[in-house]
Amino acid sequence: MDFEKALDELSDKTLDILKVKEIYNHFIGDSIIESKVAMNLSMRTSVYDKELGKSETMTELLCLLAKSNSMEARWAVAKNPHTPIDILEFLSNDKINLVRALVATNPNTPTNILPKFFSDEKIVRDGLSGNPNTPQKYLNLLADDSDKMVRLRVAENPSTSKEILEKLSLDTQKDVSIASTKRLQKECA
After folding, report:
1. What are residue 38's phi and psi, to 5 degrees?
2. Percent of the chain having pLDDT more than 70?
3. Is pLDDT of 49 > 90?
4. Rounded mean pLDDT of the chain?
5. Is the CB of residue 52 less than 8 Å from the CB of residue 46?
6. What confidence score (pLDDT) does residue 43 get?
7. Distance separating alpha carbons of residues 183 and 168, to the nearest angstrom
8. How far apart are CA 153 and CA 166, in angstroms?
9. pLDDT band at 139, cuts 50/70/90?
10. What is the pLDDT of residue 1?
11. Measured on CA atoms in the order 112, 75, 1, 7, is the torsion positive or negative?
């Protein structure tokens, strides 16, 4: 199998999933191919239809790619809505902060794992602050975060309580205050 042809084929999100698996198996251990396979799996998922693209083969590939040496492959797995819970748990301990941040953002990450991200780096807290499953207790604490972007994501989080939004509407950062006020107006409409 030709390397360049395989890369080209993986750019097509309609490529048969069994062909994607065949390419993965042929080039197993190649970071570039593993990254492209993970991106192919991401491209075939839909934000609007959670079940679109889901298959046993996709799940199998996601599990394999979670252990890749390629950071790009692992972060694509971390954000994929079809990634199994045990793999999200495994990736929540990844040495790369972007991978942990994407696990923190993934709405399928179990709520019992989310609190561990609260004391992590800013990029990871930012991911946690936007996750609709983040417990109110942590959203309330993140609403006081020193980083404006973390507070902004709390304001934009659809699960943030009215009380937290009211607190954020008084934020000294205009963007945070405006986002909170808009959310409060929508809730009252």
Report:
1. -60, -40
2. 95
3. no
4. 93
5. yes
6. 86
7. 11
8. 15
9. very high
10. 83
11. positive
Angle at alpha carbon of residue 4, lines to 18 and 10, rounded to 5°: 35
**Token pair in block for residue 14:** 């309609």
> Whats the size of the chain, residue-wise?
189
Task: Examine the pLDDT at 48 and tell me if it is beyond 60.
Answer: no
Work out whether the CA dihedral 163, 113, 150, 176 comes out positive or negative.
Answer: negative
Q: Would you state the pLDDT for residue 54?
A: 79
Q: Are 154 and 127 in contact (CB under 8 A)?
A: no
